[in-house]
Design goal:
It is a single chain. The protein folds into two domains: 133 residues, 3-Layer(aba) Sandwich (Aminopeptidase), CATH 3.40.630.30; 134 residues, Gcn5-related N-acetyltransferase (GNAT) (Aminopeptidase, 3-Layer(aba) Sandwich). The chain has twelve helices and 16 strands. It is an alpha+beta fold.
């Protein structure tokens, strides 16, 4: 049956999100408020059940980014849209979306289907890191292969979509992480989750408790303290930090939509803030979003302490998944991100590979020109 697509209100969008177990935090209306350089629009797919009224069956947050000096836009749906990705006829979802975005003067569309292709258990990754012959996670045999993912990829290619290049965090060729690390909570007690942590993690949590590390929830007024640690982390880990105003805007936008959408945690020891982290929640999915720490007093293990407090709170609030977000694909000992991968693997969870982001050029010339512009910035 043919679906109808149209722009929807924030209220309609939120109501549909609330009807789902979870969607990406980048597919809720308030995420558009976090990105002021983009114009945001909520869209919905509608279906009629028999002779009854139309009902919304899918949603998407579209971010429009203008091309310099031309009134045309890149249309981006980060980690979305929220549709039935396992429909044997994806065209009935994607064709009306492309038609609508073309009317909005989009020259190209990028989306990130929330479809997992493969999963690796923590033990498998640990063995792969220890094997010097293994260079990348993508080359390691997965513990779970999702057969429906290949069908989605085949449909997308048949419909003219192109797999996007993997890159950094912002811009046209950037996008969201393809590889993430998640700890499944559904059906598990907190004690079972703790028992799945590796020995080093359990030891470090006890060390933090014995040393007197206190983890507390913070508020808007604590964001500068978080930011000081975040800037130190950026310098240490060699990435470009976002400005403080970004996190202040995120806090205001997300918590105005839902007071539980964003939380801030800080780890204190003897009056000093040693670590801080943000946590996002949509439905039963919880994300560890941004983390920061100082290089001082690492021996009291504030990072393990803050993560365990966040995991405990997420479990108490009914989370089905605790998502530690992106991980590196490289298993090379010389890569500075390998330590972060080891830290996340210590939680005993699983790595997941998504099918990546996909582009559909509406105007091929502008699509190529914009890609070159972003690459040269």
């Amino acid at each position: 049956m043919k679906l109808r697509l149209k722009a929807i209100t924030r209220e309609e969008h939120l109501a549909f999100v609330a009807s789902r177990p979870a969607v990406s935090h980048m597919q809720v209306p308030s995420w558009g408020d976090v990105k002021p350089d983009w114009r945001a629009e909520s869209i919905g797919w509608f279906d009629r059940d028999g002779t009854g009224p139309e009902r919304i069956v899918g949603s998407g947050l579209v971010l429009y980014r203008p091309i310099p000096r031309v009134r045309r836009y890149l249309a981006y749906l980060p980690e979305g849209p929220v549709i039935d990705w396992h429909d044997a006829a994806l065209s009935r979802w994607l064709d009306p979306m492309l038609a609508h975005l073309k009317e909005q003067r989009a020259f190209s569309v990028r989306m990130g289907p929330p479809v997992v292709a493969r999963r690796w258990d923590a033990g498998t990754i640990k063995d792969a890191i220890a094997d010097p012959a293994t260079g990348r996670l993508r080359d390691v045999e997965a513990d779970v292969n999702e057969p429906q993912a290949a069908q989605v990829v085949e449909q997308l290619r048949r419909l003219g979509w192109q797999q996007g290049e993997e890159g950094g965090e912002d811009g046209f060729s950037a996008g969201q992480p393809r590889y993430v690390f998640q700890v499944p909570f559904a059906g598990q007690s907190l004690e079972e989750i703790r028992s799945n942590l590796n020995q080093q993690w359990r030891r470090n949590i006890k060390k933090a408790e014995k040393a007197g590390v206190k983890v507390v929830e913070g508020g808007y007024e604590d964001l500068p303290a978080f930011y000081d640690l975040y800037r130190e982390t950026a310098e240490r880990d060699r990435f470009i930090p976002r400005p403080l105003v970004y996190f202040q805007r995120m806090w205001t936008a997300l918590r105005t939509e839902d007071p539980d959408r964003m939380r801030l945690y800080l780890a204190h020891h003897d009056g000093e803030t040693l670590a801080a982290a943000t946590m996002l929640t949509v439905g039963n999915h919880v994300w560890y979003s941004y983390g920061a720490s100082t290089g001082r007093k690492r021996e009291v293990q504030p990072n393990n302490a803050i993560q365990w407090r966040m995991m405990s709170d997420a479990h108490e609030r009914g989370a089905a998944v605790y998502d530690l977000r992106g991980i590196t694909d490289t298993l090379d000992e010389s890569n500075h991100l390998l330590g972060l991968l080891r830290f996340k693997v210590g939680t005993g969870g699983r790595a997941a590979e998504y099918i990546g982001e996909w582009d559909h050029p509406i105007n091929k010339m502008l699509h190529k020109a914009f890609a070159l512009y972003i690459a040269r910035r």
